[in-house]
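Hey,
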Amino acid sequence: CAASLVGVGSAGMASSPCGDGNFDCGLQIQTRSVEQTLIPLVSQITTLINHKDKLKKTEKTLRAVQRVGQAVSVAVGRFVAVGEAIAAENEDLKDEMGLACFEARRAGTAIAQLTDVSSLEQCEGDGRSTVFSDRTGMVKAARMLLSSVTKVLVLADCIVIKQIISSRNKVLVTLEQLERVSTFQEFVQIFSQFGNEMVEFAHLTGDRQNDLKDEKKRARMAAARAVLEKCTMMLLTASKTCLRHPDCESARINKEAVFQRMRLALEQVIEIVTDTRSGGEARALPVSIYAGIKDFKVKVEGLRDSLYCVSCEAVAAQLEALVEKTEDFTDSAYTSHEQRETIIQLCQITRQETKQLINTWRHAQSLKAKEATDEMELSILKTCQSVSDLRRELHRVAVGRATELLKLHSDHLVLQALKASGGDGNLEAVADYAGTLNEHKEQLVETCRLLCHISGTEPLEITCIHAEETFRVIGPQIISAAQTLALHPTSKIAKENLDVFCEAWESQLCDIAILLKEINDVFEGRRGKHSANLKTVKAAKLDAEEQTTIAKLGLELCLLTSDVDSEVERWDEQDHEMVRLCQIISSMAYSMYLFTRGEGLLKTTLDLFHQAEVRQHSFSLIGFLIESVRSAIKSNESPGKDGSIYY
């Protein structure tokens, strides 16, 4: 691939993508766009370098070589012009980018000269070198060109990273402002700005996610972006609830948890795009049983090629580490006695086979054997088979557990009970159902951990970890939201807040069902493309500008809905015609907002257009209703039965 060929010109260099000002600084290609940009250039240069030394110098050959050389030179010239323009706009990268552009232009010129073979006899007569006479010069120029062009691309990529960091910083500033607001009017104003900033951040990070070469980083980015997307709605309702009930402790706890989770997700995005971790700590995934088994089998099967590549003690220790990890299964209170006994038995069989392998291995070494003996080959096969049987049983247990839990929670009875108890103001019942939800949460957290062990790929492991963290966080948030509703059972904002957190729980259960299917596909050898966001509904193909417009309109609809709901809730006569119309229009606006997120009852654009038409007929009424409600509240008035205002 292009990245490996670039290494020819940049061997021994460091790994920082931005470098330190020295031309031979490290160039680590992180994105597919940079790699794909280099491929055509690599192809053309490879054509020049790999020409036959005794190539017949026909007129056709000469013209072909010269065309390739000129094409490279012209392309480099255009490329450098863009790089120089970027350097002029970014002072901090100006010198480094300028040097890289200079080297690229010089290398392009050298290649053009070396391929200028139109007057070959004259060149040879006056001692000038050509591609036919100076292969070493061509290789040197090609290496310099690839290295300098790669550096220009990587430096340009650094600008994209800085844009993401800048966007994140703007979001953080606005997030802090939102956390400190004291009035609903101020909140709506700042949240509108926050929504626009989040839309920009979502597009920058979405493009980056799709461009990342490392599939683990893509999966981590998808998880962080999913948190930010879902938390945006939670932040809205949790903040509204706090503003409506400023002295409610459970509402404050609920809100603080949302803000904290958003900050952590924002930090994770920056860790991914900069390839660093705050505090300098190395971020590593916990080793899953699947990964451990895979590595164990590689070592065992590697004994066929060399009896001395690894020690007997290392193989035995690795197996014991694997067996220790199976305790996550055997120590679980939800693992049946039969399943526990089967796993322990398979672990014992694997130990026995490995012990037998080590005995035959040592015997072969004592004989100074250069390759595995027949007896040792049989032990290798039995050891690998036994550890594969163990993996198959662990997969069966984890998938079976997850399937049972999904069926158990499909009716969402506990969530419904919490909503009903909260709406009745029954704190004692809320506490009882909160205990049940905690039990369900622990079951789901543990199941996600087991699925992570057998998921089969690192991206799926990351998705399992994300699901585990989501259940761990949302469970307590649902409980605090339910407690708030129980303390304020007539509060529509508190009810809306609880609904949002319950929907997030239900959505995560749906994601687990999709994840389960992908894990099964990998196990059965039907591995497809990992779904980064685990969405079942596919969005229409829109360009970036259209997506931005729709996302902003969606947030505006959501804000409008919140504004209307907040004002309407203050009315004493909840059965009044004006109140009823406000609620209908608010519901329509919210449905359209959900459509922009790929959720809700509107499934097609035809549904959306129909809803928009209905809403358009009532649009003139919206302004009148909101302004009337606001005016009435300011002057402590009430609407007349016919919609007029009376004192």
